[in-house]
Amino acid sequence: MAAQLLEAADLDEITNPINSTSLSSEAYVLALANLPSSYAAAASAPSNRIDIYDKESLRGIQTLAGHEVAVTSLSTVDLFVGSNQPCLISSGKDGLVSIWDQRSGAPSVQMTTYEGGNRPLLCCDVSMDGTLVAAGTDLQGDDAIILYWDVRKPNVPLRKHTYVHSDDITAVHFLKNPYGAVTALPQDLLLSASSDGLISISNAHEDDEDESVLHVGNFGCSVAQAGWIYDPDSPRIWASSDMETFSVWSQELDQLQNLDIRGPSVHTQKRTWVTDYLITSLSNKQPWNDHSNLMVYVGSNEGDVALLSCSDHSDSDAPWTLHRVWTHGHEGIIRSLLYDEENHVLLTGGEDGRLNLWSSPSMAGDSSMNVDESIPSTSSARPAVGRSLSRSLKRELEDGDMDIDDEMQGKKARKG
Fold first, then answer.
1. pTM of the complete model beyond 0.90
2. Which domains are present in the chain?
3. Phi, psi of 184, rounded to the nearest 5 degrees
């Protein structure tokens, strides 16, 4: 039985972005990052650039060269050796990890995979103290490698772990402690996920690879995304597959929840919401309902976005809540999303090449967290139509090997 999706008592539907803009080239918006006074957007081929936009107007103010081949990840580094302000870090299929200096528009530090040649990188992250960088490679031959660099010696990897995964490494994330001195969470644990179906937690400072892996969980399907769920007592992990299955795991990688994220849906006289794919999940520093601090953002093939939460991530049949819906901003798949908590806005980027800035008031302590369980939910009201493109198909589209077939986008009824 599919998990139930209930409307929040104060469900908010936002139909118009505050501001919108489009990439300067015919490309997808692959990733977004938040800087103190601007947003950064990574573009797909043929651009492969990183564009910088003013936060209020979304006016383009700078373009960084990006990577010679596809940009595969983009994020903000709050603390980095040699820098006293947040900066951008990106990885690419050109085998480089770049830390960007916006003043010069060029990398201030660039990490290479090997002397004499580079290997495509699919993801990267920086440790909480800003001294260690990790990146994951694609599979070549029998090896998919997690590489580590000391940022003060970027030319040669500090160490490499070759046996953690046996296929493309799709995500690496250091455990970062957002609670300061409040808790004693272990530092420099690295979460990694792979197309081999495994989720792993490793000691990033361990040279002996046989001793480095602390916990392993087997999702049983190719893992597309993963991340930490921060908790002052015991952090957990979320992960999603290429088939849109969503899971939550304990710190020891015992699976707590596993469901098809497309299952929970709303069908009432007022509204129909059917999820076609997961966009991403974000963890708040503090819980914003009684049970969870995990915000799950999902999308429709028509380009709408919804915010969901689950009442109990230890139960795959636990009810979910629909808190907010953003509509009429995109055409097609949403590839990236950024929640700017400080400014109470949501930034979305899609395969239509558009960037949309939306109102998104803080959810913490919001009355919309009180679920109105009197609202009926029935799967017979309206059938769900359309599902997302597979991640492998998206990669082929991104690389320009295939044209988008409009019939594959599917349709979803907006309202009853």
1. no
2. 5-408 (2.130.10.10)
3. -115, 50
